Description:
The structure holds two protein chains of two kinds.
Chain A: H1 3-16, H2 18-56, E1 61-65, E2 86-90, E3 96-100, H3 104-111, E4 116-121, E5 125-131, E6 138-144, E7 153-156, E8 166-170, H4 182-185, E9 189-195, H5 197-205, H6 207-212, E10 218-229, E11 244-246, H7 248-259, E12 270-275, H8 281-293, E13 297-300, H9 301-344, H10 346-354, H11 359-399, H12 412-429, H13 431-439, H14 442-447
Parallel strand pairs in A: 6-11, 8-10
Antiparallel strand pairs in A: 1-12, 1-13, 2-3, 4-12, 5-6, 5-9, 7-10, 9-10
Helix pairs in contact in A: 1-11, 2-9, 2-11, 2-12, 9-11, 9-12, 9-13, 11-12, 11-13
Chain B: E1 2-11, E2 18-28, E3 33-37, H1 44-51, E4 59-64, E5 67-68, H2 74-84, E6 85-89, H3 100-110, H4 115-128, H5 144-156, E7 162-166, H6 174-191, E8 194-199, H7 202-206, E9 210-215, E10 218-224
Amino acid sequence: MSFIDIVKRSLRNLLTSKARTILTALAIAVGTFALTLTLGASNGAKEYANNIVRSNFDPTELIVSKDPNLFSRQDATKPQVYNPSFGSISTFGGETRQVQYLNTADIAKIATTKGVSSVQPAITVSLQYVTRDGQKKYIGTLAPYNSYQKPELLAGSIPEKIQDNTLILPQGFLSALGFSSAKSAIGQNIRLSVQNQTSLNSITTNPLAALNSNDNKSQESVFKVIAVSATSSTSISAATSLYLYTNINQVESLNNYIYSGTSSYQKYLTAYAKVTDGTNLTKLNTAQSLIKGEGYSVQSVVDTEKLITQFISVIEGIVTLFGLIAIIASLFGVVNTMYISVLQRTREIGLMKALGMHRKDISRLFKIEAGLIGLLGGIIGSALAVGIGTALNPAISNKLSLGNSKLLIFKASQILILIVVLALIAIFAGLLPARKAAKLDPIEALRTE
Amino acid sequence: MIEVNNLTKIYGKKSPTFKALDDVTLKIEDKSTVSIIGKSGSGKSTLMHIMSGLDEPSSGTVLIDGVDIFKMKEKKIDAFRASEMSFVFQSFFVEGNATCYQNVLLPLEIAKVGITKRKKMVMEALKAVDLEDKVSAKASTLSGGQKQRLAVARAIVNKPAIIFADEPTGNLDSINGDKIMDLLFGLNKSLGCTLIIVTHDPDIAKQTSMRVSIKDGRIENIEKGRK
């Protein structure tokens, strides 16, 4: 019997027992539904994470650190060897860690690495306050603008090179600084103040002397607003969506002012090394290896993405496991259904054998039937998941403040592979019943009542 | 020609064994009508099953046109059965949920007959059994007599050289039984096929050109010529 005839016959047999076929397929559909949603959510989460990384980091840059443990887990149970370049940072867990800082010599050394076009220390300036005439003072952070970021602008424009004393104001500051609209803020002046850290130290060590001193070591600068950036759903955190941006030189100069006279002066946790033709992964990897060879820890944007997506993959793996368990359970249903089918059609099998149907074809008939059940279950489950997921996607994405990103991203190729794999697994489940059918003695089968 | 030589069939490997056929030898001419008669358990169905290659003998040979069918590989026997033999059973064995067309189509699918030829062959077979108006009817809607006619159509659709009929009228009333036998004998003449009927109805046996009586697995008597 030809393959097409076997498929046609299998389809007819499945249609003959519609209820049984649909119920068995529905059991598979439950697992498929879960797996399709898991894949969709995983795609969405990965894309969202990638968007965050891509819109905050330049992929042609390498993040360089002196501390070998910064990009990896540190064994907190063992004491660290003292290093004069140590500074402290607070982790997300609230723990204070001693880490090695990069200094200007390190920056210069990294800059001479083959393939590296420039190195910029990774700095953000904690402003003493941000204000405007007649408005309250607010705390804020000033960060260097990277042309790679390309934020969504509500008003104004960002030139190729940001001039000194001009900045990009985040949307969150508009009403706080008394602007009625983003457009009205363009060209307006705002004042930023920074405070030298030595004056803070003196307040701690000798508060009375510090209060009586006229030298509070603060510096106020006037900046003109050239653009207003929209609140981005891809900010690393809520706080970064309130960052004010200007050029790197000015950030560096203000940072130097803050830390001059302290042990943290011109010391940096990380630096960005821009690689010439860094979009070429080979060149990026070569530069990464060379900097590593100099004894620094280096992480690329790809590494950062991997780090984030690794976590998503773990969650994905766990949920996928549950989906697979559901599918495995449903496969026992396929085995059961196919066994019943063989028993019910014993005489038909006997007749087909008597008429010259080869046992391989008999076996194929039942395997294809099982595969078609798997296929049907896969189609029902994934169609339901895509349908329900697509309908609920805008509401869920909005609830999770994902902006233009979607929580569920369904990829046709993934779903197609899932359905094909399910059909193959169902065929596997049908092996034993198919074998039983193929081995039936035609005479005994024809005698069956 | 079918030549059965010293055919023995023993069921069971350990004692007590059961000898279903004991040294059976006979020759069946092409295009003849043969009835194998005997009581229940006499071995007539076993003889038919072995002659058709559905069962294997313990010893002896079955030659069809000089070819020992048990020296063929399994796949070849299947293919031989699909192209040269067909069956009519007492219990019809029609697929109730399939249409008459689909039921008759089955042997053509198994024999891998080309799609373009199929429709004509099925329609001819249905016409031969006077069921051409039931092409699209489900087999489950047919009467017993019609079901057996459908089984006959299925048996003749690929124009086999040999038709094995195992108690073809066993589940039919006498009127329908007579109709089926008339049909089978008519097809034997029109198609020129060999018709081998297993029966314990002497009236049917009388109509065949050769009667093989079996008792306790041995040939008791072979009669030739219609009575």
